[in-house]
Amino acid sequence: MCGITGFIGEKNRETAVRKVGLMLKKLEHRGPDDEGLEVWGNAVLGHRRLSIFDLSSAGHQPMMSPDKKIGLVFNGAIFNFRNLRSELEQKGYVFISQTDTEVLIHGYSEWGFDKLIEKCRGMFAIGLWDDELKKFFLVRDRLGVKPLIYSFEAGKLAFASTVRTLKNAGFGGDLDENGVAEFLEFGFITDEFSIYQNIKKLPPATILEWSNGEIKLREYWQPPTAFNEKITFNEAVEETERLFLQAVERRLDADVPVGSLLSGGVDSGLVCWAINRLGGDITAYTVGTPGDAWDETSAAVATAKKIGIRHQILEMSADAPPNINELTQAYAEPFACASALGMLSVSKIVKKNATVLLTGDGGDDVFLGYPEHKHFWLSQKTANSTPDFAKNLWKNLRSSVPKVGALKRATTFLDFVSGGLAAVGQVRDGLPVYQKNGLLGDRLKDTQISHRQMNWSSDSANNLLKEFLDYDRKTRFVGEYLPKVDGGTMFHGLEARSPFLDTDLWEFAASLPFSIRLRNGTLKAVLREIARRRISEAVATGKKQGFGIPVQRWILGHWRKSIEEVFHDSLLEKEGWINSAATLKLLEKSVKENFAPRQLWFLYVLESWLRFEKERQFCEVSQGK
């Protein structure tokens, strides 16, 4: 794990070096072990290193080819690099380090960029300069595990690992209304936008090529869209286990201490089981919150004992709220995923014991572990047996049905059956809550987001779960779930690795019919069956819990005074984004009703983030940076 940056196409060498230097300062937390900067004619690359493979200076980046005509910066891990290295050595290439980075250098020389990336298995953000061709390549891994941000203007390309890094060097513009609107809708910003104008996120599985002041983007991978209808449930379980063990084995490879998270759930339990099965000598860590309803300590202790893995409980208080300032520092854009606070706390504690941390992230997303997966599958099956005239009839009748209690749930289900993905987007409590309570300022009053502008479609309803999975992968998965882990761990110099994000395993799981992944209506039935066979019935049948962060409770308690203070003198209102009087009125109403809508939390995060950004920019200007 590292931080990467660069500036391509700037003819003024002094300007380019200065800007890359400014960006490197903002990446220090992502790479505390080493810093490097290299310059060619009109290309400057910068790197901050978190040493994982080959801790010596041989792993210094930017790394260059022996003739210095190829330069590369790399963030992530290539898990099959030893196999690629052997292949290259057989072709006569000589290596001076034990890093995966050097494999990328020689691999490009041998295969070219696209073929190299096709061969790589891992999580990565890579920037490569070819001085002979005067071409530059950027690429992001298939699922988008590692972030990669860029800004392109007047033929010049700047890139970095975070949005804030680019902004710090003067790239980008004012806050983007689309980005702000998306944050208020979701609590995060998708890859379609960023919080600033003219700063973009390179999509997952995408190569950007710069040449002669122009850029071209091309997608190099998509998950399978066709299902293997012939496979049996037992065959699916056995092949999943084989691929999963392979994925875990790949991620145990490191030259630094490796640890693993262990909750009371299926996914992290399977990771720890696989580690023990493979002979990995590591410690599993459980974050304990004694006395809290979400505490999973007892379940984790039982799982660790059953598996036979070394186990340590790391206690933290469930009552003392985390410092929201850490959230704004760790995440370059406003980010209101409440569990990110827990991720930051966990990472800070685990860093004392390990530098690489295996997690169970991704299992729910591809093996179908969220309740909505089951609901959408049932809705899809219902839609396929419902004639179009009945769906159209419902659209005309739905407005007359009271939206309360069981009728509200029934209405939502029938909306999915009739409207498909568009109905899913419209049922969410997002911007309408702000509009209903008069919370938006003049700059947002007329703002719409595309997620609420989709048209109802019978075809979409007939394919709802499939369409939702594709939509969710491009929005929530890559905009919330992956940044939560990357931002939280990298803020404390910790590399997170999840076996469930292995490309081979993901492709296989995505090819399994829904009837297998949700066999007998059981969420992630395949993984639960492996857990039943290899760990215990208790783990296999356990309910999904997760690490809970009660932010809505803290809004009415620990944070209430702070919220009142910031919205009495709101930067968001001064810049025309919100109505602070209406916000304070909603807070007062929430206190009386003893319930705070999550939109108050989103506004608090956005206000705190904006204050942090303004203070940071003021300090840097006053210091002459």
Question: Can you offer a commentary on this structure?
Answer:
By secondary structure, the protein is an alpha+beta fold. The protein contains 28 helices and 17 strands. The strands form three sheets. It has a six-stranded antiparallel β-sheet with strand order 2-3-1-9-8-10. Strand 2 and strand 3 (43-49) form a beta hairpin. Helix 8 (266-277) crosses helix 22 and helix 25 runs antiparallel to helix 27 (580-593). The model has no long low-confidence stretch (mean pLDDT 92).
Short précis:
This protein is α+β, with helices and mostly antiparallel strands.
Total number of helical segments? Answer: 28
Alpha-carbon distance between the termini? 27 Å
Secondary structure: helix percent: 40-55%
Shape: globular
Structural class: alpha+beta
Strands of the largest sheet, in order across it? 2-3-1-9-8-10
Which helices and strands occur, and which strands form pairs?
Blueprint: E1 2-8, H1 13-26, E2 34-39, E3 43-49, E4 63-64, E5 70-78, H2 81-90, H3 100-111, H4 113-119, E6 122-130, E7 135-140, E8 149-153, E9 156-160, H5 163-168, H6 177-186, E10 200-201, E11 206-211, E12 214-219, H7 233-251, E13 258-261, H8 266-277, E14 283-288, H9 297-307, E15 310-315, H10 324-330, H11 339-350, E16 356-358, H12 363-367, H13 371-384, H14 388-397, H15 405-419, H16 421-427, H17 431-436, H18 458-462, H19 464-490, E17 495-497, H20 503-510, H21 514-517, H22 525-534, H23 537-541, H24 551-555, H25 560-568, H26 571-574, H27 580-593, H28 598-622
Parallel strand pairs: 13-14, 13-16, 14-15, 16-17
Antiparallel strand pairs: 1-3, 1-9, 2-3, 4-5, 5-6, 6-7, 7-11, 8-9, 8-10, 11-12
Helix pairs in contact: 2-3, 3-4, 7-8, 7-20, 7-22, 8-9, 8-22, 10-28, 11-19, 13-15, 14-15, 15-16, 25-27
